[in-house]
Amino acid sequence: MHISSFLIQEGRDSDYAALSDLMDVMRAERVPDEPSAPLSERQVAWRSVPELYRIRTWLAWEDGQAVGRAEAGYPDVPENAHLLHTLFEVHPAHRRRGLGRTLLAEVVTYAETLGRRSLLLSSVSNVPDGEAFLQRIGARPALEMRVSRLELADVDAGLLDRWLEAGPAADFELGFWTGVYPDEHLEDIARLYDILNTAPRGELEVEDVRTSAEELRQRDRSFAATGQRRWVAYALERASGRFVGFTELDWHPARPGTLSQGATGVFPEFRGRGLGRWLKAAMLRRVMLELPEARRIETGNAQSNAPMLAINVALGFRPHRTLINWQLEVEQARRYLDG
User: Where's the N-acetyltransferase domain (predicted)?
Assistant: First the structure.
């Protein structure tokens, strides 16, 4: 067994092919009812990762096959300079052989070199081996997320009508951005993402993040290169001309059956006026009118985010799996490795 390492934007074709094969195996374990993206699409995505993001990948090889991987990345921004976003995966047939520990050692050394003192990790409920590994190395669970699905055949069209009719249209305008964001609104859209700093964080030790217009430009270039589609519904206050809320939806046209519901948020001072329900209902109505091949929508919310969960449950979203975000101090990881 040997380990190779590369920046994700700079991998060789052979690296990408082996990584894609491993990802197919891991995805089949995690979401067996969903198709995987082909290698060609993933290669474009990896080579198009925004310059702002520094992502290093390690592959564990046996007999010419990648049987495990680690990933460690961070955005090159002032906030959260103590964090390293990390991921560990080992092929089910190669577990309990020390591969996870070997990959952890690579990531910990990298974090020490960068001066980053804390790792962010995650596990999913239908892959219990991941949670067991994180417990073993001393990580602490910090935020529990509910991943939910909405089967579009079960949507209550009457409920959407009622929510749309009750929307505060006298004071707010509801609109859509389709595809890349319009350049003339980039600064305003960047400020919309500030809403995400008000989302529940549980016990995660993280700082607020301020999204820049340049980051949005880089994301959009990457997004366009991969062929992804995106709709964003927004609410604009008529009196001030200020964007006050939004909800995102994206998908790939090669796999139109499942859509991904991204962020949804309303600035705190505008909550309690039905904007969240209005935005969600408008998005769902458009999906049902314009995307006949879509079968379901998947989304994730903090278990502690009662207001957003209430909206999603009312729409018909049902729990599918649980995702836990963990945090691990690099010093603790080093003690585990040296023990």
Answer: 9-165, 179-338
60 secondary structure, DSSP code: E
What phi, psi does 131 have (nearest 5°)? -65, -40
pLDDT digits (tens, 9 = 90+) for 258-312: 999 999 999 999 999 999 999 999 999 999 999 999 999 999 999 999 999 999 9
Enter the tokens of residue 161.
């009508």
pLDDT tens-digit readout, 209-237 = 999 999 999 999 999 999 999 999 999 99
As a whole number of angstroms, the distance between CA 42 and CA 322 comes to: 26
- Yes or no: say if 119 and 86 are a contact pair by the CB < 8 Å rule: yes
- What residue type is 115 in one-letter code? G
Q: Taking the CB of residue 241, how many other CB atoms lie within 10 A of it?
A: 9
Same domain, 238 and 306: yes
Distance CA 319, CA 19 (A): 30
Question: Could you tell me the CATH number of the domain that includes residue 80?
Answer: 3.40.630.30
Location of structure tokens 């074709």? 13
Q: How many domains does the chain have?
A: 2
The torsion angles phi and psi of 197, rounded to 5 degrees, stand at -70, -15
| C-alpha–C-alpha distance, residues 174 and 313, integer Å | 23
Per-residue three-class SS string for 32-77: CCCCCCCHHHHHHHHHCCCCCEEEEEEEEEECCEEEEEEEEEEECC
Q: Quick one: 227 and 267 in the same domain?
A: yes
Pairing of strands 255-266, 296-302: parallel
Which residue, chain included where needed, has tokens 């894609």?
Answer: 20
State the average pLDDT over residues 179-199.
97
